[in-house]
Amino acid sequence: MIGLIHEFTENRTGAKPLLSVPVLFFFLALITACSLPGNQGAANSPAAGDLTDLEDTPAASPPFETVAAPIFTPDAGYYTSAQTISVSSATEGARIYVTTDGSEPTAASPAYTGPITLAGSATLKAIAVKDGMTGSGVTEATYAMDEDSPVVSITGVAEGAVVIGDCSLSAEASDTGEFDRLTLYINGVKVDETASPSVTCSWDTTLVENGSYTIKAEARDRIGNTAVDTVSVTVMNSSGDGVPLEYGDPGFDSGAVRDISLFVDSDNVPWAAYARIGEPDSGKGVLVKYTSGGWEPAGGGNFCAPGETGDDTGGLRLLVKNGEPFVLFRNNSGIFRVVTWDGLSWVQ
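and the corresponding structure tokens:
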């Protein structure tokens, strides 16, 4: 095309070309570049006066690394004694700030300078910071200290009690810390367990042999502190005629009674007084005394026996063992209580 233009201008006018070949090439290249699709935004390029604004815009900063979160040693948890707590961060040179009252830590909180000794329960929180890095998140650890053991006691059956039939066993516990569980054992065999601080269960003594048994209640708190209470009882189920085994002479059998009183007269003779229940003479006092021949009625009348128990019983037996009187009476829970004679007084 340039050749044609050159020839045309030279042939028509006889003059030299108005445009040299290099100049034409420049203009053609410029026109072609502006017409390309990828260069349509050239018209939107900033003017020369706008270059200063671009030069003043700062380049984006690279992201900062984050400081490793603090670590508590030993781990949070339940402990039975004072603990010494160390705090560290995997980021070398990091500064650690700790609170021991559960509040959120900041760079204004106490700086960690060494192990912290906790004599009681506390919640620790910590952060780690370092210049030129993003601070860590908050690490939290709760330490529960409980040196006190629970308190537990067996209720419903007393030490030395004689039991027959279905017997109700119960225990109560308390703890200043966090209670875990309460367990009942009979001769070392678990019979009941609960997360409650009280437990009650029924023991069918007809399924075991007559003899001595140890009832144990064990209370445990969350940390592992324990407390134990034990009582020894005697299972004494009857031979079929209502007479407890091992006790020989049944003596005087009153049946169901209330207001029992055992006493000694001026001649050192043991007596028993009680009131019958559910019989024609119900409510009338009955007196019996022990002589060398055993128990024998000694009269009665409209009186309330001194030193009454105030509770109805399921039955009373005035018995003799090894030539000495003793009393066995059953309450409404099936628990027998034994009162023996030591030659001078009644002993429970």
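(Above: one complete record from the training split.) The CA atoms of residues 99 and 105 lie 6 Å apart.
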